[in-house]
Automatic annotation (TrEMBL):
This is GID complex catalytic subunit 2. GO terms for cellular component: cytoplasm; GID complex; nucleus. It comes from Maudiozyma exigua (Yeast). Its main location: cytoplasm. Belongs to the RMD5/GID2 family. A zinc finger (RING-Gid-type) spans 357-400. One of its GO terms (molecular function) is zinc ion binding. Keywords: Cytoplasm, Metal-binding, Zinc, Zinc-finger. It is found in: Cytoplasm. GO terms for biological process: proteasome-mediated ubiquitin-dependent protein catabolic process. Residues 357-400 form the RING-Gid-type domain. PANTHER family: GH10162P, MACROPHAGE ERYTHROBLAST ATTACHER-RELATED.
Amino acid sequence: MSSPIINIQNAYDQYLTHDNGTRTYLQDCLTETQEFKTQLRKLKAHLNKHIQETKSLESNDTENKIRLEKRRSLILDKLNKSYKQWDNSIVKHTKRSKQGLTKFNSVALSSFQRFNIDNIYNNRISNAYKKDIQGAVQSHICRYSLSDVPVQDTEKLLRYLQNVYDMSPELSSEFIMLGQILYGLSHRDFQSCWNWSYIEQQNNQSHMMRTLRYKLYIFKALIMTQTESVEDVCYYLVNQIPQGTFQNEKVDFAKDASAMLGQLMIQGKINNFDSYCDKIASECRDSFTQEYCSLYNLPNESPLSLVIMSGILSSQFFMKYAQIKSSAHIGWTTANELPFDVDLPDSLTHFHPVFICPVLKEETTTENPPYSLACHHIISKKALDKLSKNGTISFKCPYCPVQSTISKTQLIRFVML
């Protein structure tokens, strides 16, 4: 039985993309529209020039009037031609996209439509966990919806979240602040994030906070290039950014500043300003979100999103298990674990920050991860290497009589909830 996840990817590449999966038809629509807008700006400039020349003509200058009329006709013909070409392209790409989506729905999703997980997994969530589920839904709504729109009346929003979603005003206010600062950064307004980080950095000198502060300086310098002189921006980059930020051993902070200085001094402007500004804004958002959530003990990612994505990735294993179950007449042996392993990507997993190896009494890290023995007791990689003499011998678990070997151990990755 082929994996439905692979079927979906293949169907997506086949029906919704072209040029070896590098572009979708909707992306072509965006590209064509941007090119058409560029063409319109050029034609607008030609028309404005034509209008100015026409106004400056003498009333008896018939020869130049005829020449300008011909030029105006050429501009209008080019405008009509560009519009028809753009319109035909949009219609063509939209039609192909709709056809591809129809085929994708009928082919790629058919296996999921025939699949009912209730026929396989019958260990339903008990009522005792409903409060946790409600909390995950609340967290998801506040984590992502409050950064999309500006909040005009905070008190009214607090009452709404409390009445509709049963969110406490204390927790809601923290999410509102997070959302509004993220909203500002998305719209190239760094001031609210700047003010927050200035206050917090007085008692917090973490690496992430220093990174955020530096990125905000670069962000401010970028915005200044649109309104200030090159000399003022260069002076700001050289003298206003704290010198300590350039001495960070982990990050080459001077790279962004030096690149901007070079472009300003040589060209007098920043190349690809919009894309570069979006990049810096995104980096500020990521650094701020991570630091803010850490300080206020909020989830950096929505637990609900992580669980749902884990379920989507796991569905292929459930479907395969359904086939095995029907042919071998087997069932679940426990209500708290799966009868198969699900390999989740690193984006959905991480090491628990306070998991301590019971043998060496050391915290597990990426370099020293936790491993499960044959008896399901967990120790660190360093302890495993010591007990097995680097995998050359079998050994007894430090906490039970079960013998184990290096081949019977498994790397442990905790789901990030």
